[in-house]
Design goal:
One of its GO terms (molecular function) is ATP binding. Keywords: Amino-acid transport, ATP-binding, Cell membrane, Membrane, Nucleotide-binding, Translocase, Transport. It holds the Pfam family NIL. The chain is an alpha/beta fold. Helix content is 33%, strand content 28%. It has 13 helices and 14 strands. A hairpin with a 2-residue loop joins strand 9 and strand 10. The two termini are 30 Å apart. Bound molecules: adenosine-5'-triphosphate. Adenosine-5'-triphosphate binds next to strand 1, strand 2 and helix 1.
Length: 359
Amino acid sequence: MITTTGLTKVYRSGDRDVTALDGVDLHVREGEVYGVIGQSGAGKSTLIRCLNLLERPTSGTVTVAGQELTSIAGRGKRAGAQLRAARSHIGMVFQHFNLLSSRTVQDNVELPLEILKVDRRERSRKALELLDLVGLADKAKAYPAQLSGGQKQRVGIARALAGDPKVLLSDEATSALDPETTRSILTLLRDLNRQLGLTIVLITHEMDVVKTICDSAALMKNGRVVEQGTVAELLATPGSELARELFPVGGEPSADDRTVVDITFHGSAATRPVISELARTYNVDISILGAAMDTVGGKQIGRMRIELPGRFEENVVPIGFLREQGLQVDVADVADLVPDTAAAVPAPAAAPLQKEGAK
Ligand SMILES: Nc1ncnc2c1ncn2[C@@H]1O[C@H](COP(=O)(O)OP(=O)(O)OP(=O)(O)O)[C@@H](O)[C@H]1O
């Protein structure tokens, strides 16, 4: 549904250039909820704004629903009309809602339809239908100031859907909301994705958002996408930072002559008794050091850190057994995990994906 190739954006800031996007190749499949995560300044906002050409990329291409937007050249009248038409298939939701305070809720939702020159009756019909869809049928005549944050975002979502978009872009849509309201907005986005077959790209700095509704995710750093794929693919990728952030498992070994193994379960492997099979088959004592089980995009996924007696060389066969079961198995470096040794040689800390402050 969305493909970018070599997407690059360089801003001129005073007398220096800032490369906000540095050759981004993104692939978003039709009907998926795709999360882009990264720290403040990683280039997430720039990426999402380039997807509907709110921001003109310096180079590279953007193709949405088969149409290459970046080939609609220039800023003339004709290019403007073409771009408006293409953009009507792409809705956008903003962190601070961007509602017009002087207009009623219904008139805010009708705004994109006015721009598309839809007649008044049809505009009104469509706006009321969308307000019903987002659960605000009774607020049509209210003004934004009379609404809660969550209700304002519902209006923002209804407005974004006015042009019957195939794609919805969400720029930190929940980061101004409290946790409960965040959950209700994420549920609404998930329902819209399923009911309307809407493809959703959302940018966020919260791993919980990815965990709650995303089928796929990309991690951005310094203007580049450093990891991307379905959540299951990421979990199956050795050393994936996103997988580690999604399912952090801690736990230190009881001594340094132990083997520590991180196991990722998904699909049918999540429900098989592999640990007890391992213990029985190899008559080995297994300690569970840490574990996290969760449901991601409706699928059960989990990670577990176990400890086996003896060093790695003594555990090659049991580890091979786990791999044969189709599990993702990563052998941890015990020297990094034992506190005394780790203090002498500090492991690089995984930077928390937190916003460092509002822009
Ligand atoms: N209009 C602009 N002019 C100059 N530099 C800009 C502009 N917009 C963004 N940048 C720079 O581009 C880089 C990427 O910014 P961007 O807003 O895309 O990051 P982000 O990941 O969305 O961050 P945040 O989570 O804080 O919103 C940053 O270094 C930023 O300072």
